[in-house]
Amino acid sequence: MKDSHQALWDNCLKLIQANVTEQQFKTWFAPLTLESYSEDEHKLLVQVPSPYVYEYLEQYYAGLLSKVLARVFGSGVTLTYRLMTVQSAAPGVVDVESDGPGLDIAQPAPMGNKAPHTLDSVTPALNPQLDSKKTFQNFIEGDSNKLSRTVGLSIAEHPGKTTFNPFFIYGPSGCGKTHLINAIGVRCKETYPQKRVLYVSARLFQVQFTDSVRQNTTNDFINFYQSIDVLIVDDIQEWMNSPKTLDTFFHIFDHLFRLGKQIVLASDRPPVDLQGVKDRLLTRFACGLIAELEKPNTQLCIDILNAKCRRDGLKIPADVIDFIAQTANGSVRDLEGVVNSLMAYSIVYNSNIDMHLAERVIMRSVKIDDRPLTIDDILEKVCHHYGVSQQSAFSKSRKRNYVQVRQVSMYLAQKHTKLSAARIGLLIGNRDHSTVIHSCNTIEKRMKVDKSFLDEINSIENSFKLKK
Q1: Confidence band (pLDDT; 50, 70, 90) for 365?
Q2: Distance of alpha carbon 448 from alpha carbon 136, whole angstroms
Q3: How far is residue 289 from each of residues 59, 179, 264, 265, 334, measured CA to CA in Å?
Q4: Cβ(37)–Cβ(45) under 8 Å?
Q5: Which of 450, 383, 388 has the alpha carbon at shortest distance from 442?
Q6: Residues 47-60: what's their mean pLDDT?
Q7: CA angle 255, 259, 260 (to 5 degrees)
Q8: Measuring CA to CA, how many Å separate 64 from each of 69, 115, 376?
Q9: 170 in Cβ contact with 270 (< 8 Å)
Q10: pTM flag (> 0.70)
Q11: What are residue 460's phi and psi, to 5 degrees?
């Protein structure tokens, strides 16, 4: 009986050969091998040499195969595929166990009524490498990210079906790029569990590619990535000086794009600034949508912090929230780091979270070149300049040098921090806001008439390395 099935399959190949060019037949159909045919189920199982061959057949020859099979085997036949050999997965991404030949391949989006093709069994397991905590639910919307978030949500709900393919996101570190592209992957996987969704950093992709070259498995590496339905790559600027990696990604990109698979890319700069990337790839990056993510403004930082407090059950005073939002450099990572540090200090030292603690944490958590001045910074420099201890400056003494230290510190705090006069007075000797206002006016008037005093103030400010 099997011989008769083989004869029928041979007839199918003859009909196909009569309807395609010789080169097309040799490339796509000659490698196909009949494995079995079930007359009861009307199911034809054919072996293919690679996932790429299968996808190409489904994309371009589904109609031809359907007509030929109906004529030779009868109407209602179902065509299934199986790989001839086990394909090696990209290292660190897929975990597949098999005893030998016969691993079923992954199927892309169904072809509708185009052809009665199905798979023989379930798709091999794929770890999408997504962070389940980075979702749209906790990606707070603001003016700086509204467009990107809206487009990302649309892509996640209709991957490969929108005009936003590829979706290229760029912006400075800490603006939320990784969170957003993870959220796209998480929502897509929730909505379409059967889709092969994969998040990978550019560095991991490059390591995998290098390993595949060393192990002579580059074809398997490419075949694996060409089987992905939604490919998300982070920090692609790291490929700028890696021409071989870029060339390989070009072929993967071109294949996925041609099949209508969704591609999401993130970078710290726009495509035009990706030096070393060839024009053929840059034009493909630009054919979808390029969206910039800006650093969150103060209000968005406040919203992010309040959302984190609600989510984690934290209680942080409003003035501390405002202070952190204004001083964390517009970086979401810095915001979260400061809050985590505040909680740790509060627990370890059994102290309340207040402005004084927030200032100390900011001083240790935010990069020294970027972080704003704190009251502690100002007091330290002013006291050092005048040779006075902070304890003396905070005392009730009316000695001229102590008063001058307090007044200069208040003036500089008013000029270089965003704290209120009442807050400055409280932190510098527990004075009231009227004292701060008087001190600032006194210092400003003296600077206008006393050049040597003006030079003193400039010298202290220079020690802060502040920009005028």
Answers
A1: low
A2: 54
A3: 25, 18, 10, 10, 29
A4: yes
A5: 450
A6: 77
A7: 120
A8: 9, 9, 77
A9: yes
A10: no
A11: -65, -45
Sheet with strand 78-83: strands edge to edge: 33-38, 43-48, 78-83
Question: Taking 90 as the threshold, does the pLDDT of residue 225 lie above it?
Answer: yes
Long-range contacts for 109-114 (Cβ within 8 Å, ≥24 apart)?
A: 109/160, 109/195, 109/229, 109/260, 111/58, 111/62, 114/62, 114/63, 114/66
Amino acid, single-letter form, for residue 195: K
| Residue with tokens 């919203």, as numbered in its chain | 303
User: How far is it, in rounded angstroms, from Cα 452 to Cα 280?
Assistant: 63
The owner of tokens 């570190």 is 173
What is the pairing mode between strands 33-38 and 43-48?
Answer: antiparallel
pLDDT > 70 fraction of the chain, expressed in percent and rounded: 86
Structure tokens at 415: 């000029």
pLDDT for 14-52, tens place per residue? 999 988 888 788 878 888 889 889 888 888 899 887 776
Strand partners, 234: 201
- Residue 61: both structure tokens together: 């020859």
